[in-house]
Design a protein that fits this description.
Layout: H1 2-12, H2 19-26, E1 27-28, H3 33-58, H4 64-75, H5 77-86, E2 92-93, H6 104-120, H7 122-134, H8 140-144, H9 150-160, E3 165-174, E4 177-186, E5 189-197, H10 200-218
Parallel strand pairs: 1-2
Antiparallel strand pairs: 3-4, 4-5
Helix pairs in contact: 2-6, 3-4, 3-6, 3-7, 4-9, 5-6, 6-7, 9-10
């Protein structure tokens, strides 16, 4: 597996010493799957922290909801898949390569980041991730023109956590005329949150923002 180690050292411009660690990150098999998944778990958390810190520094005038939406667009599975493929990341498998699903490339990229964190520490891995993964592949002009799409982020947030989400929005009457009332169902459970507005879109956006605030500020939503 010297090709893998050579690839990693060329990509990051550093010599690595814990070679087995990086072989776990790039290897997928059913027998040693736990090592790969542990690195993926760690890499996901490290990547989220790096992106959060970077966006916080880069956009001092953006609110928490928009920063969260930006972070989701960078850390979502499709983006990570595309970056991994562009970087030339390969997956070592002990089965037929045709069995590899495309989304695994993003997972391997996260496992790779987890291995980098263990090998080099946070400050070094932060520098590597920003220079090699975030800055070359992110179109920040799109971010700067972005409006707050709270509903879109909320759906991405729960999709990543493999939760089923459904908006339950209906017309209702009030003394001010016709309104739309919106509620949300997560994994078949109707949650307590409710918002009303003059349009269905506005009601769902307002509801999404309220739920996001509860997740990231009050930690009320499971």
């Amino acid at each position: 597996m010297e090709e893998v180690i050579s690839y990693v050292e060329t990509l990051i411009g550093k010599k690595i010493f814990n070679k087995d660690l990086f072989l776990y990150a790039f290897r997928y098999n059913q027998i040693k799957k736990i090592e790969y998944e542990r690195l993926e778990y760690l890499g996901d958390a490290v990547l989220e922290l790096i992106i959060s810190d970077f966006l916080f520094q880069k956009y001092p005038d953006k609110d928490e909801g928009l920063l969260t939406s930006m972070r989701a667009k960078i850390s979502n599975r499709k983006f990570l898949n595309d970056v991994a493929i562009k970087l030339g990341i390969d997956i070592i498998v002990d089965e037929e390569k045709n069995n590899i699903i495309k989304h695994m490339y993003g997972s391997v990229l996260e496992a790779f980041i987890g291995a980098l964190f263990i090998e080099f520490g946070f400050e070094n891995v932060k520098d590597l991730v920003l220079k090699k993964i975030v800055i070359p592949f992110v179109n920040f002009a799109d971010f700067e023109n972005q409006t707050e799409n709270y509903k879109g982020f909320l759906l991405e947030y729960f999709q990543k956590r493999k939760k089923q989400v459904e908006f339950f929005t209906y017309k209702t009457e009030s003394s001010n005329g016709e309104l739309f009332e919106s509620r949300i169902i997560i994994d078949g459970i109707l949650k307590k949150f409710v918002e009303t507005a003059s349009s269905k879109k506005e009601a769902e956006q307002n509801l999404s923002k309220k739920i996001l605030d509860s997740i990231f500020v009050k930690n009320e939503v499971n």
